[in-house]
C-alpha cells in the first residue's frame, strides 16, 4: 500500500503516473465513479470522493476499506487533503471530513510509503 | 527562481523579503505588488505592507496584470513578486468573460519566465489555498485550478521551493 495526499489540483495523479509509467488509464479507478472493487486496479484516485459518495449512499466506508486493504494490499491510493479548513456546520460535510481523515490515518498506518504533494512536488513523509 | 508557498499569515512574506534581500546583495531590489487596490480597505492594506518593507531597500512597483511589461524596468535586479493568488485572479477575472484555467496559467507562467530571464533573481510568493475540501462555485473552482497549475509549472522551473508553516521554512525542493 502506498498513499499520496495533497491539496486540490496539486498534480498528485500526474506525479504517481510519472513515478509508475507502467500503469495506464485502465489501472486507475476514480473514486467519484460508482465502480465496485470486483475488478482489479492499481491506482485508486480521488479517494476522498469515494468516501463522500459512500456516505451519501448510506454505505460503510470504514469496513469497505478494510476489505479493500485485505484484498489489494499492493495498491496506490491518492486522496485530497480536505481537513485544513474551518470545520463545516453542515453535518454531512463534517462527517465527510471526519471519515476521510480517519481513513487516511488507517491507510497511512498500513502504507509502506506516504508522500505529500504540493505544487506538483512530492515529499516522502513515511 | 525561488518559489515560496504557505497559508495565510504563515509568515511567508517576511521569509520572502529576507530571501530576496539576501539574494540581492548589492544589486537593486524590487518589490512587485500584484494586489489591485480597490477601495479604502485595500489602500490601508497596501500602506501597511509598504510600512513593513520600509527601510529594507525595496523599490515598490504596483502591477496587477501583464507583468512581463516590467521586464525592462527590473533588468539586472532582484525581484520579489507578491503574490500569485492576486495575479492569477486579476488575469482570470479581468474582462467580462472568465478565461480558461489552463490558458490563464500558461499566460502567467510565460510572463513570469520572461521576468526571470531579465532579473538577476526572482522570489515568488504563492498561496496554499487548496486544503479545505470545500467545493466552491464554478468560477472559484476554475480559479483554484489555474493557481494550482501555475504553482506546479513554477515549482518545476524553480531552483528551490519552500513551504512556510508557522514561520518555519520547510524544503519542498
Structure description:
The complex is a heterodimer of chains A (126) and B (173). Chain A is 39% helix and 21% strand. Chain A has 126 residues and is an alpha/beta fold. In chain A, strands 2-3-4-1-5-6 form a six-stranded mixed β-sheet, sandwiched between helices. In chain A, strand 5 and strand 6 form a beta hairpin. The mean pLDDT of chain A is 92. By secondary structure, chain B is α/β, with parallel strands linked by helices. Chain B has one domain: Rossmann fold (3-Layer(aba) Sandwich), CATH 3.40.50.300. Helix content of chain B is 43%, strand content 21%. A seven-stranded mixed β-sheet of chain B has the order 3-2-4-5-1-6-7, sandwiched between helices. In chain B, strand 2 (29-33), helix 2 and strand 3 (58-62) form a beta-alpha-beta unit. The relative contact order of chain B is 0.23. The mean pLDDT of chain B is 93. The A-B interface holds A 6-11, 48, 80-86, 88, 96-97, 100, 118-121, 123 and B 3, 5, 7, 126, 128-134, 144-145, 148-149, 151-152, 154-156, 161, 163, 172-173.
What descriptors fit this protein?
heterodimer; A: 126 residues; alpha/beta; Rossmann fold; globular; B: 173 residues; 7-stranded mixed sheet; 43% helix; 21% strand
Report the biggest beta sheet of chain A as strand number plus sense, adding barrel if it closes.
6 strands, mixed
Q: What percent of the residues of chain A sit in helical stretches (DSSP H or I)?
A: 25-40%
Give the amount of beta strand of chain A, in percent.
15-25%
CATH fold-level assignment of chain A: Rossmann fold
Report the C-alpha radius of gyration of chain B, rounded. Answer: 15 Å
Structural class of chain A: alpha/beta
Order of helices and strands of chain B: EHEHEEHHEHEE
Query: Which second-level CATH architecture of chain A applies?
Result: 3-Layer(aba) Sandwich
Amino acid at each position: 500500500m502506498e498513499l499520496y495526499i495533497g491539496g486540490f489540483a496539486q498534480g498528485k495523479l500526474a506525479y504517481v503516473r510519472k513515478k509508475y509509467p507502467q500503469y495506464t488509464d485502465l489501472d486507475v479507478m476514480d473514486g467519484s465513479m460508482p465502480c465496485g472493487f470486483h475488478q482489479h486496479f492499481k491506482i485508486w484516485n480521488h479517494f476522498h470522493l469515494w468516501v463522500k459518495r459512500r456516505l451519501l449512499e448510506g454505505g460503510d466506508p470504514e469496513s469497505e476499506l478494510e476489505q479493500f486493504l485485505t484484498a489489494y494490499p499492493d495498491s496506490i491510493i491518492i486522496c485530497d487533503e480536505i481537513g485544513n479548513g474551518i470545520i463545516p456546520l453542515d453535518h454531512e460535510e463534517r462527517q465527510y471530513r471526519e471519515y476521510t481523515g480517519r481513513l487516511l490515518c488507517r491507510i497511512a498506518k498500513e502504507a509502506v510509503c506516504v508522500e505529500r504533494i504540493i505544487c506538483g512536488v512530492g515529499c516522502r513523509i513515511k | 527562481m525561488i518559489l515560496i508557498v504557505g497559508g495565510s499569515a504563515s509568515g511567508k512574506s517576511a521569509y520572502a523579503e529576507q530571501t530576496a534581500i539576501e539574494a540581492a546583495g548589492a544589486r537593486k531590489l524590487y518589490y512587485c505588488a500584484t494586489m489591485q487596490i480597490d477601495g479604502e480597505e485595500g489602500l490601508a492594506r497596501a500602506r501597511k505592507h509598504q510600512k513593513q518593507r520600509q527601510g529594507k531597500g525595496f523599490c515598490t512597483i504596483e502591477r496587477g496584470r501583464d507583468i512581463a511589461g516590467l521586464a525592462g524596468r527590473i533588468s539586472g535586479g532582484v525581484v520579489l513578486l507578491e503574490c500569485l493568488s492576486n495575479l492569477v485572479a486579476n488575469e482570470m477575472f479581468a474582462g467580462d468573460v472568465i478565461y480558461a484555467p489552463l490558458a490563464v496559467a500558461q499566460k502567467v507562467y510565460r510572463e513570469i519566465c520572461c521576468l526571470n530571464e531579465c532579473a538577476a533573481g526572482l522570489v515568488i510568493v504563492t498561496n496554499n489555498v487548496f486544503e479545505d475540501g470545500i467545493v466552491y462555485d464554478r468560477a472559484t473552482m476554475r480559479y483554484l485550478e489555474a493557481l494550482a497549475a501555475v504553482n506546479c509549472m513554477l515549482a518545476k522551473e524553480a531552483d528551490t521551493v519552500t513551504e512556510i508553516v508557522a514561520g518555519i521554512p520547510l524544503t519542498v525542493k
